[in-house]
Every structure is written in structure tokens, then in C-alpha cells.
Design brief:
12 helices
Length: about 290
């Protein structure tokens, strides 16, 4: 794989992992449309997981202070206000402290459906789903419509720390559908958060925090496989470049999206997904793609 391809794909991953437009779907579509087929499907997926590892580094670094506070509170330590308000007020009512202490466990609960689905549908995700551009395009459009509906239905009243067990389970189930390229992990979880009446910022932050364990799990599984099989010849430099670039771009995407959704809706992403999905369907029929 040429290094320039690694850079382009890493930029796409860094942006689309957190912006709700589907990173896996865009990586597959760009390869198919540009004819970048130097890697086997298995090695493509391995490289994509390496790019996900880069975005894992970005989300860990961006939320490093929040993760420390969440874990400390969950384990009975000092509680501070680490919700989307960003303050450090320690004068919390008992009920507020209880809510802060539960957030880690709700994130853990939300991880379970995606982990189960990933195990059960591993081969479908690696083989069938990635080979059908019409499926990807359809997923882009369907989730866009759900995002629009979520925006319309939500009262946007619930802050991050008011997350409930039911909310975390619903968001976790939504994350499981992101195994289908085009759905978007962030898109599905943010949309589910809106249906749970979370504020946009709360839904985004919960989605980004939730990405940490699921991406880490996938990266560790692939790292174990790579340790046994090794990288293809000439892939070490593209892997390193891809991880670094996706980490840098991912950090910038997180910071931008959180600020953007404090004052704006998901409308631009809804329109983008519908337009891209429609264009891909037209091109698929014109070029006889699957």
C-alpha cells in the first residue's frame, strides 16, 4: 500500500469515526470507487482496525481527565462534576453524587450488546457486509432518517449524568448495529441518545466515551492475530503513518463536533448521508457494483 493511500484513509477514519457519517462505510466506498485494491479483504480489515486504534488514542487523550474522574467516582473516590458543563464543582447533592458514580457502570452495560454482536457476527462483518455497496448506501440513508426523527422527537433535556440503565441499554443495542458499514457507530449511538431525550452534547459525549472499550477490544483482537501472522511485506510504514494521522485528525474531529453541537443540530450530517447514499446507489447501478 502506498503511503499516500494510508494518509488519505487515515484522514477519512479520523473524521468519520466521530462525525456521524460512518468511517467503515467511507473507507470501503473510497477503496471501491478509486480502485485501491492492493490489500486482500482480510488485510484491509486489519489496516482499518489499525486506523481505529489511532482514533482510540485520540479519544483516550481528549477524555483523559473525564475518564480519570469517572473511574475514581465509580470506585468510591472523590466526586466532581464531570458532565458536559465542564465545571469542577464539588458541592454536589447526594443524588447528584450517586448519578456521577453510576456513569462508569452504565458505560459498561452499553458495551455489552456491541461485544456480543461483534462475536456472533464477526465473519459477516468481515466478509458479507463489506462487499455490498448497496447495503452501505442504504444504511447511510436509513440512519439519516432515524437521526432526523430523533432530532424531531427528543426534548433534549437530559444531561450526561442523568443517564439511566434503560438509556445505556438502548444506546448499547444501537451501537451493535454499527457492525453494518454505513450505519456509523457514532451516528447510531448519538441518535439513540436523542431518542432517550439526552441533550445533543450529552449524547455525543456518551457516544465518544462508549467508543473507548469497543474500539480497544477490536484492536486487541487484531493485535493478537497480527502477533501470530505478522504484517504483509511493506506494510509497517503505512500502518504507523495511518495510526498517527488518524489519531491527530480524530482528536480535532472530537473537539470540533462537541463545540458544533452545542449550538447546532445534526441537519448537515443528515443531508450529507442522504446525498452520499443516493449518489453511491446511482454509481453502483451505472458501474455494475454490488
Amino acid at each position: 500500500m502506498p503511503v499516500y493511500q494510508a494518509v488519505v484513509l487515515a484522514i477519512i477514519q479520523g473524521l468519520a469515526e466521530f462525525i456521524p457519517v460512518s468511517s467503515s462505510g467511507h473507507l470501503i466506498l473510497v477503496r471501491r470507487l478509486l480502485g485501491w485494491n492492493e490489500l486482500s479483504p482480510a488485510h484491509e480489515l486489519t489496516f482499518d482496525v489499525a486506523l481505529h486504534f489511532g482514533t482510540l488514542l485520540s479519544v483516550l487523550f481528549y477524555f483523559r481527565r473525564t475518564w480519570f474522574q469517572i473511574i475514581r467516582a465509580a470506585l468510591g473516590g472523590k466526586v466532581v462534576r464531570f458532565s458536559e458543563s465542564g465545571g469542577a464543582d464539588t458541592n454536589l447533592a447526594p443524588e447528584e453524587q450517586r448519578e456521577e458514580r453510576l456513569l462508569l457502570w452504565f458505560l459498561a452495560i452499553a458495551t455489552v450488546p456491541g461485544a456480543i454482536a461483534g462475536k456472533l457476527l464477526e465473519h459477516s462483518a468481515e466478509d458479507y457486509f463489506r462487499e455490498h455497496v448497496i447495503l452501505i448506501a442504504g444504511a447511510l440513508i436509513v440512519v439519516a432518517l432515524l437521526m432526523w426523527w430523533g432530532e424531531r422527537m427528543s426534548n433534549l433535556s437530559k444531561p450526561l449524568t442523568r443517564t439511566t440503565f434503560a438509556d445505556s441499554l438502548i444506546i448499547g443495542i444501537a451501537q451493535a448495529f454499527a457492525l453494518i458499514p454505513g450505519v456509523s457507530r457514532s451516528g447510531s449511538t448519538i441518535t439513540a441518545g436523542l431518542f432517550c431525550n439526552m441533550t445533543r452534547e450529552a449524547a455525543v459525549r456518551f457516544s465518544f466515551l462508549l467508543s473507548t472499550p469497543i474500539i480497544a477490544g477490536a484492536a486487541m483482537l487484531k493485535a493478537h492475530e497480527l502477533h501470530k501472522e505478522g504484517l504483509p511485506a511493506g506494510m509497517h510504514t503505512p500502518f504507523i503513518v495511518g495510526i498517527v494521522v488518524s489519531a491527530i485528525v480524530g482528536y480535532a474531529a472530537i473537539a470540533w463536533l462537541i463545540r458544533y453541537l452545542q449550538m447546532n443540530t445534526l441537519r448537515v450530517f443528515i443531508i450529507y448521508r442522504i446525498v452520499v447514499g443516493a449518489v453511491v446507489i446511482v454509481l453502483a447501478f451505472m458501474w455494475h457494483l454490488q
